[in-house]
């Protein structure tokens, strides 16, 4: 090997560091581990730069096709000049005219361990090593395939056979994980989905206790020293901050997770050193837990509000909800109840609700640590948080048998409402239901056989939600019967005509009445006063819970407050839950490009995180092509026999007279649809939750015969100018075909007819003002040499191809969101294809549509400017 001082001479000789931002670098010194990096480099040709740290530099190879986990795939690796260690974090553009001009991202990074002496192995031309990266793991080998002496010696890079090895047809790492690991770190859940046997969940830790974590604590500072604290009198009452159900965390902000404890929420008010223990509904439970009242008095707070959860810890150190309930039964002792505290909205004359969460919790932790050194009774504990990926913490929580995790944004204030700065992520779906009835066991009338459940809908009406028949012992079933019997009433408690009575509900497809279940036939209906907590696997399309298990009755929540919990749609959707499997993946879908079904499925798997926000919760029509682009094409709007089960069937009542519409709500559904031969995804302008009120307005620029591409670009700018004059911001995307789409996010206040009438008036205005460029009438003969701006996309049940969707046309173009500044660089509406779109996205550092979802706009001014009145339009 060359001395380190000479190893970078070739690197420096090729670069002008006054023009390029690449680091000049000096030879470094290895730490305890040898690092590696793979940089994805879009130069004259896309390739991957594979770099291993050794002797203070990064030894480097250019791998044109990138690595493969398939041991049978030998990838060419051309040895190039060594790079400085500081190059390992380089991302950015190398300017034109410079060596390697193009864009660089850090595709993977980590550390490596050689087998044997690495210098001797390199000299012999055979290096075996293990990679410990985010994407690259397991044993690999580099083999030189020339005698030596060449300026750029050729090597082969390939995977050794081990637990990580995967056939290329099953997993292509460069297409599955194409992004920068600096901008988009790979989660443990992502890896576990591909390598489930290798990446098992981490061993479950014991439940953290705050006073074991802090050594020699001092007195906490005055709460008045916290930024955002203000002097104020002790509030007489305080409503708790509530969390929103979610399936993933937003991309923005700093978040940390706590374990979701299985107990009762408790707010503690301390006045003149005396504590009152209040449930979230305001009930005073102080007399029920005198040992905790005494413990809070010993905290040393003269006045305060604390927020926490009371639990009873089981033999494994995890909360046991049944033990907590038993502790409150008559004749039982509550001394085993402990309180985990997680927030402090008020302390000693200072309102802390505007103090960032992180600072509030740090102060609370210090207070509890001081208390623990004086009173080592373990009754008051700090709810620890974890600086780890949410999926890792969630996996641990599930392994512990806990309900899930609470994710909290660290800079957020304390707000007495349900917020999206506190999120709850659950191992199973689990929530409270109103107990509306019960059915006795057929073999023992003194025991409950099933509970009939309900929730309140958006209008506050009590509606059925299914039933639960497991989760209790024989003794508990008898106790339930005794507790519920005094609440019996002669008829169902469900409100008005919101839902037909048992046995008269209309079937989803046939329109026939479904027969009543045995539970409904034998139901004893109840006054809706009791609340039950139930775990279940999913909601059915007709709004019943599936595979339900009873947890417990709840005394701390009023029945009138129980609604169906709707998971918040994540800004960063969940990864696929299982490895990709494709049938007939070798089938060519497009003869002009050679794209196969496997290529298309992999494309959709790779863009799922970006595409799902445009699909989730929105009716979707799939354009299917079982024979490929050249064969028969048909739209699939509804479910039916043979449909991909991962697709969601929406409630048929949303569109009366029609079968259930489909929606694509998660990555598995998107990939399953592609496996089902769907190429295009077209969505409604309104989401399912308010299908009669669209939340976007679309202008589809459709060029007629003889219209050249620069006219389409100019047309898009003219549409934007008109919208800006009407004070409407708009976003641009390619159509994937011949034209462009201009999209306006709007407040979902007006029906489709109003939005369509406004868009039609705008298009007619363009056609009158610029008749040589625009036409307001559809039909090929009307738009020769001109552009028809299609306003018909805004009608009821009309659809537009979704962002990132492929098009079933030769070349398989893609509908791609773009910045207005990039309009001039586009070559056509199919500028990107299935073969090029994902690579383009991997180098994109800024989302051109980042503000789209945050910019809903009113149409009042635009309608007034176009001479429209909503009332007259709707009529």
TrEMBL record:
Entries under PROSITE patterns matching the protein: DNA_LIGASE_A3
Gene3D superfamilies: 3.30.1490.70, DNA ligase/mRNA capping enzyme, DNA primase, PRIM domain, Nucleic acid-binding proteins
GO biological process: DNA recombination; DNA repair
Enzyme class: ligase
Keywords: ATP-binding, DNA damage, DNA recombination, DNA repair, DNA-binding, DNA-directed DNA polymerase, Exonuclease, Hydrolase, Ligase, Manganese, Metal-binding, Multifunctional enzyme, Nuclease, Nucleotide-binding, Nucleotidyltransferase, Transferase
CDD domains named in the record: Adenylation_DNA_ligase_LigD_LigC, OBF_DNA_ligase_LigD, PaeLigD_Pol_like
ATP-dependent DNA ligase family profile domain ranges (all copies): 330-461
Domain of life: Bacteria
UniProt-annotated stretches for the region Disordered: 1-33, 205-231
InterPro entries, per the entry: DNA_ligase_ATP-dep_C (IPR012309), DNA_ligase_ATP-dep_cent (IPR012310), LigD_ligase_dom (IPR014146), LigD_PE_domain (IPR014144), LigD_pol_dom (IPR014145), NA-bd_OB-fold (IPR012340), NHEJ_ligase_prk (IPR014143), NHEJ_LigD (IPR052171)
The reaction(s) this protein catalyses: ATP + (deoxyribonucleotide)n-3'-hydroxyl + 5'-phospho-(deoxyribonucleotide)m = (deoxyribonucleotide)n+m + AMP + diphosphate
Record-level Gene Ontology MF annotations: ATP binding; DNA binding; DNA ligase (ATP) activity; DNA-directed DNA polymerase activity; exonuclease activity; metal ion binding
CC cofactor: Mn(2+)
Pfam families xref list: DNA_ligase_A_C, DNA_ligase_A_M, LigD_N, LigD_Prim-Pol
EC number: 6.5.1.1
Entry-linked NCBIfam families: LigD_PE_dom (TIGR02777), ligD_pol (TIGR02778), NHEJ_ligase_lig (TIGR02779), NHEJ_ligase_prk (TIGR02776), PRK05972.1 (NF004628)
Protein name, per record: DNA ligase (ATP)
Gene that produces this protein: ligD
